[in-house]
Amino acid sequence: MNTVIDATDRRIIAATQEGLPLTPRPYAMIAAQLGLDAGDVMDRMQRMLDSGAIRRIGAVPNHYALGFKGNGMSVWDVPDDTIKEAGQTIGALDFVSHCYHRPRHLPTWPYNLFAMVHGRDRAEVDEKVHHIAAILGANNRGHEVLFSTRILKKTGLRIAG
Amino acid sequence: MDARDIAIINYLQGGFPVTDRPYAEAAITLGITERELIERLENLLEKGVLSRFGPMYHAERLGGGLTLAALHVPDEGFDRVAEQVNGFPEVAHNYQREHHLNMWFVLATETPARIDEVLAEIERKTGCRVYNVPKIEEFFVGLRFEL
């Protein structure tokens, strides 16, 4: 599901992936930096938003700094023939920020459904994980919660212009 | 952080306008001035409450590769391996987690083919086996923080 982007789009991406300028006319500023017309930059960014190449434009909060210290990656072993339904149900929960079907690596890693659960502390995450377990019922053949203890690196995507 | 900062974070998690004066437009909804919005965003970024402000690109839809991978790193070598892994520009995020697989990182590459190459390089450099768990299907991605 690739979107057709051209060399000019890539230059815009490279110029904005670290963030938008904090100035009254941010798109005009990017345009000036790249030698483009401001209207063209806005059209292209709007097109990328419409096509999904840009997921959203906005603030990316640092969970830790906001007091969401209970960032738990819950992982579940769900039968393959029910994973689609399970994933859609769990992904729709308002405390789940990311939900994916991913491959197992047996025997070390038996889990195929990942759901990122956020809470103010571990107790809150544990409570939400119990809620997921209750929903999955017999489709939950085992699960764990991997709490993060440290952010080692966090940058946006880096795309060369 | 005060009530206005919280309102800004809640309101601006998405939907920032693509218009000539987007901060001015967003500021109207928030009931503040354009200048105050810009200053507060600067401050939130400076304090690390926000890690970024701007567009979130979808790597795969831009033709790039994206995956999540994990390592089991022995405690005594952890910081050295973290430095080695973080040294790859393709590593976008890296988290330490409490598990036998204790290092989890997101890799974003220019092309899908680069994923396997970079993972092989990471394996060689760190001496740790890489568990690659690329997504098979995405059910939901979004942020719904309500502060």
Explain this structure.
The complex is a heterodimer of chains A (161) and B (147). Chain A is an alpha+beta fold and 161 residues long. Chain A has two domains: 7-51; 70-147, Alpha-Beta Plaits. Helices cover 35% and strands 25% of the residues of chain A. Chain A has a four-stranded antiparallel beta sheet. In chain A, helix 2 crosses helix 3. Chain A is elongated. Chain B has two domains: 3-46, no CATH class; 59-132, Alpha-Beta Plaits (2-Layer Sandwich). The mean pLDDT of chain B is 93. Chain B has a four-stranded antiparallel beta sheet, with helices on one face. Helices cover 37% and strands 25% of the residues of chain B. Chain B is α+β, with helices and mostly antiparallel strands and 147 residues long. Chain B is built from five helices and six strands; from the N terminus they run αααββαββαββ. The N and C termini of chain B lie close together (11 Å). In chain B, helix 2 (22-30) crosses helix 3 (34-46). At the A-B interface, helix 2, helix 3, strand 1, helix 4 and strand 3 of A face helix 2, helix 3, strand 1, helix 4 and strand 3 of B.
